[in-house]
From TrEMBL:
Family as reported in the entry's similarity comment: Belongs to the enoyl-CoA hydratase/isomerase family.
The protein's name in its UniProt record: Enoyl-CoA hydratase/carnithine racemase
Classification of source organism: Bacteria, Pseudomonadati, Pseudomonadota, Alphaproteobacteria, Rhodobacterales
MF-aspect GO terms: catalytic activity
Organism this protein belongs to: Salipiger marinus
Family matches, as Pfam families: ECH_1 (PF00378)
Length: 253
């Protein structure tokens, strides 16, 4: 997937997940590209704030299922090192970082949005965890970022039931910080990010570091266990069922 970058004269950098025909999956190459873009933005004094969004009317439909085949545990864990890097960069980013969500934010797309300190969503946006549908546990930090926003009990239920949450409910629960009219999430997120950029940067960094203090534990847990699940028979069945558009037949192995 390509990550499209757009810089404005006002110091705003917009990073767009740009594979709209597949609802902008967040695969390994996309995560590498995001990490590189955020690293560059953090060091660039001309960048005052960053917004992450998706092309084609959706934020992201989740991880790239075509990229989730069986690999050695070492190879999987190297990939999860990239996940740990990009999610940590996002949660502790030294400048305002806002997700602008239109349409679906599902699975890894949901986790990617939650890694942003601020989320603006269209009133028609929808959020769902969906990891267990393909016999996986949540990753990309969602085990930390979702309960941090809505509490552990509600987070556990949303993860286990895969219930779709519409934008108005997401705002009420605390998943979303601000709602926008359909098609206006990017504009609203951009205005919010630039407004935040007027504040003092140093205390903002310390505050973000405090709220991200439990994230490293969740990322380490994912890096240890998700590779085992990705190589399981149930995960292979989940991928096949997804591709064939049928209910999975899990066997617990």
């Amino acid at each position: 997937m390509s990550i499209e970058t757009q810089r404005g004269e006002d110091g705003l950098l917009v990073l767009t997940l740009n594979e709209p025909d597949r609802r902008n999956p967040v695969g390994h190459k996309a995560r590498q590209a995001l990490s590189a873009a955020l690293s560059g933005a953090a060091a660039d004094d001309a960048v005052r704030a960053v917004v992450i969004t998706g092309a084609g009317g959706h934020f992201s439909g989740g991880g790239d299922i075509r990229d989730q085949g069986e690999r050695s545990l070492g190879a999987h864990r190297e990939r999860f090192a990239v996940i740990s890097d990009v999610i940590t960069r996002m949660a502790r980013f030294p400048k305002p970082l806002v997700a602008a969500v239109e349409g679906w934010a599902a699975g890894g797309g949901f986790a990617l949005a939650l890694a942003c300190p601020t989320i603006v969503a269209s009133r028609e946006a929808r959020f769902v965890a969906s990891f267990t549908k393909i016999a996986l546990m949540p990753d990309m930090g969602l085990l930390s970022t979702l309960p941090a926003r809505i509490g552990p009990a509600r987070a556990r239920r949303l993860i286990l039931t895969n219930r779709v949450v519409g934008a108005p409910e997401a705002e009420a629960l605390g998943i979303v910080d601000e709602l926008a009219e359909p098609g206006e999430a990017l504009r609203a997120a951009s205005a919010l990010a630039l407004a935040e950029a007027e504040g003092a940067a140093l205390p903002r960094q310390f505050i973000l570091d405090w709220f991200a203090r439990d994230l490293a534990e969740a990322l380490e847990y994912e890096q240890t266990l998700q590779p085992l699940l990705l190589n399981s028979a149930d995960a292979a069945e989940g991928r096949a069922a997804f591709a064939e558009k049928r209910p999975p037949r899990f066997r617990g192995c």
